[in-house]
Write a structure and sequence with these properties.
Number of helices: 10
Radius of gyration: 25 Å
Strand order of the largest sheet: 2-6-7-1-5-4-3
Number of strands: 15
Strand content: 15-25%
Structural class: alpha+beta
Order of helices and strands: EHHHEEEEEEHEEEHHEHHHEEEHE
Length: 407
């Protein structure tokens, strides 16, 4: 499977200028492609092909006075901008026809120089390389300093240079993973676990372990509030306002990075320890429209489940999503009797049939595990024996604790 590995870049002043110029040229070519498509649609003519757009918007445009500066950046960057425009239109038409699954995609729009995220892509044709000293050598930009947090498992096929809202630069490499190396890193296990996601605790496992909710956004609210208040007092268009905007963006980036790090560490630990994992398919979009919206977004359930999903595929694990209407909180995990719906403030209840006292979240996690086990058996997925401690290879420094719930 293909994955992306991102590393922080530290370009010098001249390289920042060259990157900003490349971002601008790619943006102009993308906007020209969208404008050419829109003009053809309004005129009732056929859409120009990719080859025609390349000749008109790149080759011939370089020879004009208005677009002569396109020749100062790598041509691969401009060609990839055209490919991005073509992909945007393909996704738009596929969404209109109902072929593309997921949220409906709108028509491509013009990009702005004020967009929070700017990016350019270099393929193998651009002849970019990593120097012997560990720098990333990009055509017409130079050798950029890279902070290598880990080694690349295989040779990358392309690299995307990204500038985010906080003014940070990243190099994102596309990697084809090695199945043999993945099997060695994550040996087979005979364990299975059910996960009940929540807000009071981030997750409760079927074996009794509890992962506390870090509440990264809640803890940073005071700092964010002050930074946002300072931004609102600055005059629009001034340098002070831009500095205040960067301060707000960096504060939000720190929260997002810390949350992502927590999700990576926890998902890797669960994938390493268990051959099969059961988790509820929560309606995150619906919950995000309630009064709990901020807490739901702060927890980041969708990102966590997505990490579990791709890591399960990569390392040969089984991830089972339990339907959101499964009565996991209403069913006794001991005898299977359904006791009916219960308000959220009821955290413990006693089964009327067998008399077992249940913790609401722990009981739900057990039911998730049971439902996942039935699904695994039904699809004949093998939960193989041989529990071996695998090496922990995810980068990061933010830890968390897995402690059993007190009786």
């Amino acid at each position: 499977m293909q994955l992306r590995y991102s590393f922080r870049l530290y370009p010098d002043t001249a390289q920042r200028t060259a990157l900003d110029q490349a971002f601008g040229c790619a943006r102009v070519v993308f906007n020209d492609a969208v404008r050419a498509r829109e003009d053809a649609r309004k005129a009732g003519a056929a859409f120009p092909t990719a080859g025609e757009l390349s000749k008109k918007l790149i080759t011939r445009a370089k020879q004009t006075v208005e677009r002569c500066w396109l020749g100062e950046v790598s041509v691969v960057v401009l060609q990839q901008a055209l490919r991005d425009a073509e992909a945007a239109y393909r996704n738009f038409f596929a969404s209109l026809k109902g072929v593309r699954k997921g949220t409906r995609v709108g028509a491509p729009r013009f990009k702005s120089r004020k967009d929070n995220r700017q990016s350019i892509r270099f393929t193998a044709n651009a002849r970019w390389s990593v120097t012997g000293s560990g720098r990333l050598n990009l055509p017409k930009i130079g050798a950029v300093k890279v902070k290598w947090s880990r080694t690349l498992p295989t040779a990358p096929s392309s690299v995307t240079v990204i500038k985010d809202a906080a003014g940070r630069y990243f190099a994102s490499f596309v990697i084809d993973t090695d199945p043999a190396a993945d099997a060695t890193a994550m040996p087979d296990s005979d364990q299975m676990v059910g996960i009940d996601l929540g807000l009071t605790h981030f997750a409760v496992l079927s074996d009794g372990r509890v992962i506390d909710s870090p509440r990264f956004l809640r803890r940073a609210e005071k700092k964010l509030k002050k930074a946002q208040r300072d931004l609102s007092r600055k005059q629009k268009g001034s340098k002070n306002r831009e500095e205040a905007r960067l301060k707000v963006a960096r504060a939000h980036a720190q929260v997002a990075d810390t949350r992502r790090e927590f999700h990576h560490q926890l998902s890797t630990k669960l994938i390493r320890e268990n051959q099969a994992i059961g988790v509820e398919d929560l309606a995150v979009k619906g919950l995000a429209r309630t009064r709990l919206a901020k807490s739901v977004h702060d927890a980041g359930w969708a990102q966590f489940v997505a990490m579990l999903e791709y890591k399960a595929v990569r390392y040969g694990r089984t991830l089972v999503k339990i339907g959101r209407f499964e009565p996991t909180s209403q069913t006794c995990s001991a005898c299977g009797v359904k006791d009916g719906p219960k308000p959220l403030h009821i955290r413990e209840w006693t089964c009327p049939a067998c008399g077992t006292v249940h913790d609401r979240d722990h009981n739900a996690a057990k039911n998730v595990k049971t439902a996942a086990g039935l699904a695994v058996t039904a699809c004949r997925a093998q939960v193989r024996p041989g529990l071996v401690l695998a090496q922990y290879d995810e980068a990061g420094s933010h830890g968390f604790s897995l402690e059993p719930r007190a009786a």
